[in-house]
Amino acid sequence: MNSVLKIILQRLALGLLTLFIVSIVIFTAVNMLPGDFAEAILGQGATPEAVASIRRDLGLDQHPIVRYFDWLSGALRGDLGNSFAQANFASFVGDDSGVRVSVAQQIAPRFANTMFLAGVTAAIAVPFAVMLGILAALYRNSVFDKVANISTLTSISSPEFFLAYVLILFLAVLNPVLPSLSNIYEGMGFGERLQKTMLPALTLTLVVTAHMMRMTRAAIINLLASPYIEMARLKGIKPMRVIIKHALPNALAPIINVVALNLAYLITGVVVVEVVFVYPGIGQLFVDSVKIRDIPVVQACCLIFAAAYILLNLTADILSILSNPRLRHPK
């Protein structure tokens, strides 16, 4: 158990180091964008005094290294700064009547919406993909297996926006079963929210199911030639029971990895789907903030995406370690 704990601590330390490096890349990339942020906020008719005042108020006149560590220390405390776009600009030029909106206040409801979308998608995609992979392994080289592989390969090869528009055509236009736009708002009932989220959730399900199904199928087929599987078959155990009780538990490590990676995609890769369905999530907020150059929000969204991806990768590593009996019970 000490060796397992040591490996887990090493993974956590590596994850923190990766997140630190990614934060440097995010800050550097955003600050390398052409143009002056203060002039972009105030417009072309801004006076030099107003530009200098807002640059001083925002700390843009400081050295980039100082600004980076101020941003990083604030992020560690949960303070991601103030949104440029949502503020009353009078507050930036010395007028106390101005109102500033923190980035955390702006991101929190959007992030909750994205997590709801990811949760609905995961609840549909994970059991569906695993069961589809089990059936494809059980009936490998059959018509069902070939159709499943062709379908998943087509799904992997199709971009998200294409699948989204196909679903809109068939489920919202030709057969108006689900709404084409996801108008989510605060206080909406669970049933109505679920209905409006279903179409983007089905789009993401088509994208992530393919990877999980193919990995489940490959991992199980790889174990079917093992001696203990042959022994179970010789005892007369039903093929489905052999796969579920004997093969699947030993194939969990690669399956957990691919499931965690696809769950990370559900949080970090929803930008295109949220834009297509106008879903009020963090991906839509990120695109809108890039358009209006709301730099604190862009940096915060990128940091959240990176942290979620790294965290879920760490979770996959740790669960893979814990699912390995040779690591849990060393000789």
From TrEMBL:
Keywords: Cell membrane, Membrane, Transmembrane, Transmembrane helix, Transport. It is found in: Cell membrane. GO terms for biological process: transmembrane transport. PROSITE patterns: ABC_TM1. Residues 111-316 form the ABC transmembrane type-1 domain. The keyword Nucleotide-binding does not apply. The chain crosses the membrane at residues 12-33, 115-139, 160-178, 198-229, 250-277, 297-322. It is a multi-pass membrane protein. GO terms for cellular component: plasma membrane. Pfam families: BPD_transp_1, BPD_transp_1_N. Belongs to the binding-protein-dependent transport system permease family. This is Peptide/nickel transport system permease protein. It comes from Antarctobacter heliothermus.
